[in-house]
Amino acid sequence: MEPDSKEFDKLQKLLASKEKEKPEEGFFDQFSDQVLTRLEEPAPKPTLWERLNDQVDPLRAAAAIFAAVIGVGVLFALDEGSNMTGTEPEPLGQADEEASAEPLGQEQNTLAGSGLPLNKSKAKPPRILMNPGTGLAPLPAKVDPSFYQDKSASNTVHRPK
Amino acid sequence: MLESTSTVSPAKGGETMPEWNEQEFVSRARKGDMEACDALVRQYQERIYATVYHMTSNHEDAADLAQETFIKAFRKIDKFKGDSSFFTWLYRIAVNSTINFIRSKRRRVILSINQMDEEWDRGEELLGLVSKDTPRQNVDRHELQGMLNAAMQKLSSNHRLVVTLHDVQGVPHEQIGEIMDCNTNTVRTRLHYARKQLQAHLSDYLKP
Description:
Chain A is built from six helices and one strand, in the order αβααααα. By secondary structure, chain A is mainly α.
């Protein structure tokens, strides 16, 4: 027999010998009476955790929590989507420029270094940049005709009269 | 070894009852019949106590936990659906209570040794298992029992439980799987590692 298997055999016999360990004599004669006496006493009030444990099936509870998390996520996503459609289109890169324009360490909403408050209203690009030509009436230009006269040859200085 | 519905009578000082029908006693206990409760306690008290004792290695703790197991079982007997035998269900309550107890009292481990049966009391058979060629050859029975219990306490609660149920009490792997809510292969693996650890802890005594 291998030394290891001999050791193992001894270990099993040793463990089996534990079954012979018994409490003092008469212990089991009183045991049932003690249990039944304690059983007739009023049961202690269960804690909140015990009540939850008893009344809620853990699998169902986990499914409900999962469904609630998904539901909240969907609502949040829908809300975000509606906000996005409600805002005016921003020129590409505009938001990034605004964000990066602020000096590092600068307190928010103040002018760099001065501590003066900035205008809180969100800066919008001029409408003309978005749609060139809008809002301008086609007016004829009023130009003084003397402006176009060639004065270089005379080399004279015009002084106001 | 452990049967759910057997014709074995409840053990009480060698007395025998005409027929032991677990289901009948369980349904009577459900209706609040104290005689049925008494019969169920007497039938299973020794095995439940032994399991808890081998897990805790302390007589007082084992007595308290064994009582608690039966009280919990009778208070929640309406929740027993009959998917497994009453005894497996009872075992599960005992095991869970004991594991919770061990976790809460991890820092306070006081070992106490129960007496051996009379025929074993001389300890010759037990001492015969200790190798003659080791430095521990002069060990006495109490020391050996103490060493074994201390080695058991070094195992994790799951490893200790499989060793207790299988190697000490002879519960088959399948039933241990039901009690521990795991498959038979897991039981075998745990048993293998638990024995390896015990062998390492007791190597001074067991060397051939």
